[in-house]
């Protein structure tokens, strides 16, 4: 550390104050969260001091959980989940109650513990010392309220209550890291503190003096305005208030465990109150502790890892768990014990690489990596092997070649081994987060098996069994919230339209720690499932609005279906009302048609979705047809590249009208409107042959066009003087709308055959791709039947046709035709036609 004489005067004075407070049996332990070195030093200090009371940085609302934290069945990693509700004032006083409920916001924070957290050590050691324990930080609700006042643009949802970003951004620490050749503040901390031998950690006074200077120098980099805005100052006022209260009635030594960043201010303020003959008055903060909701929950190493985005504490918790266990073993040769730890870690890493077939590492590779780690520690002046030494040795020894994207699997395995996946256990007496308890109880109520994590299958008779319908809604609700509890395998799909004829749904489900972790994350949005789902629906609506789809009938009906599948019955009338508003005004024909199709799905499943008493569904189906017909009536002549899209829309509308008429037992009034609307448009489509061909097919199939009229149109398109390209486009339109016409109406085959015979080879080659595409609407048997027709017309046997058919691609066919053209050109150029004819005659004879 820095020489004492070089320390700023403020720090020298603060160190003197610490000694004076210690003379009064008030001891400060500035710590870095989740530091094995700090935890071990705290343990040594507490056992030596034998305090009457221990104060810990943490919201005061956590005090009701101390018994659960100290319970023998509570095993880290654990966390206290803290949540407060915010009710923003709605911009519209007429905001629906359901939307106002969904607009409620929650702010969530986590206070994690692992075995080597200094706070955990203090909590667990207190009963053996018969010491009282108390959390003294500002309650979470007040912190949120203060930060909202400081910045109206808060965007975070959840965070750690042990943030240490000050250390990472400190100019002092960055400069010191560069001076000591460390790549970041984590390596610097490890070099200066974590690698200290056990005997130096046992000298806890000197150790905490060094930690205090480290953290105090970081604090001096920040201006008071920044600390005020981030609630650091008001939190320190609340902690000071708690310390002063305990100083007045303490019966013995007092120990205070806080993040080192706050210790400088606390020491100065406390000394001013206790050592100054005329102390200044401190503000008494009002507590909103009752607004806090807090629960003790299971946590996991991967969520605790700073490298996964966790905002405080040491990275690589599984590695430091090994270091902590080694520290507690009190082995005489620490350096050898740490080397043994590193070799075991490298061996496990090698085994996992081999198991996952990432690389074949040998004993020599493990030996080389271990020797490199030991050599790096010596080179860097480490008292014992560090995490960085081990990581660097693994990269150097196991990776062959450059560190490119191909090494991602290597990095992932190393990160997973460093991070770990240990899951803690909370005592059964601990309060459970309401959301987790609610979902667990609902899952048991619906008779899902939750005793083990093996996947199980549920088969639900959703159309006939009311209890199974409730189970289905529960599963759809969890699936919508992405909890990874269940995966739908089969069953009627009212969003996509598939398997609507099935009576059963099948799901695979399993209750795993990941489900609990997802519920914990989801808990920041509320404590009730249907309310959270409603919030998500409203967020989807907002997303649609930002994408310009705020009044899309298709998006609105999708939200309606989702709400129905999840059983959000109070929201159904609201969503129906929105759809009734959007559908007549939706300017997007594709959106209206998709909306109409999904309304048909809803009608099919109206019993399952509890829409039997919903008269709006029938009205909406009729409105979808009316809106689509209106939008079609506004069409102008389509550009050539949009003909196929126009035809596709006409076919969708035609199908929608027919299905709606069938389901609603209505006469063909809708089809009459369809054909009259199209008839008004066709005079302007003179050059839109594909579109006209499709319309002609539909008119003939619906009886609007007679066989004689169809024959006249075909003769006009396929007869003498017809434009070959327009004729093929017209045929393509017919095939797209009603391919069966080509089989049911023989005159079409005759006219098509006559047309093709009028083409020369160049025209045929040019139009061949379009012809092939037109016939893709045939099924294989239909293709064979049509080929038989053409064979009969041309006096060719079907066997001869089969002789020429083969599995070749369109590109290969075109290449063959082009080669044949080139060969004919060469024969003509060399005047070999008579010779070739004579050769053919000779071969035949």
Strand content: 5-15%
Give the averaged pLDDT, no decimals. 83
Query: Quick one: biggest sheet?
Result: 4 strands, parallel
Structural class category: alpha/beta
Radius of gyration: 39 Å
**Low-confidence sequence ranges:** 1-5, 152-157
N-C termini distance: 108 Å
The total count of strands amounts to 11
Total separate domains: 5
Helix content: 55-70%
Described by the principal axes of the CA atoms, the overall outline is elongated
Spatial order of strands in the largest sheet: 1-7-2-5
Description of the structure:
The chain is an alpha/beta fold. The chain has five domains: 4-281 and 289-299, no CATH class; 317-419, no CATH class; 434-527, no CATH class; 688-805; 809-845. The radius of gyration is 39 Å and the shape is elongated. Mean pLDDT is 83; it is low at 1-5 and 152-157.
Outline the fold blueprint.
Elements: H1 9-23, E1 26-31, H2 36-49, E2 53-59, H3 66-69, E3 78-86, H4 97-102, E4 105-113, H5 118-129, E5 132-137, H6 140-150, E6 158-160, H7 165-169, H8 171-179, H9 185-194, H10 198-202, H11 204-219, H12 224-229, H13 232-249, E7 254-259, H14 260-274, E8 293-298, H15 301-304, H16 317-328, H17 334-355, H18 363-379, H19 387-398, H20 408-419, H21 434-445, E9 456-461, H22 466-480, E10 486-490, E11 504-509, H23 513-522, H24 529-546, H25 553-566, H26 572-582, H27 589-604, H28 616-633, H29 643-663, H30 669-681, H31 689-701, H32 707-718, H33 724-737, H34 741-744, H35 746-757, H36 761-774, H37 780-793, H38 798-804, H39 810-829, H40 833-844
Parallel strand pairs: 1-7, 2-5, 2-7, 4-6
Antiparallel strand pairs: 3-4, 3-8, 9-11, 10-11
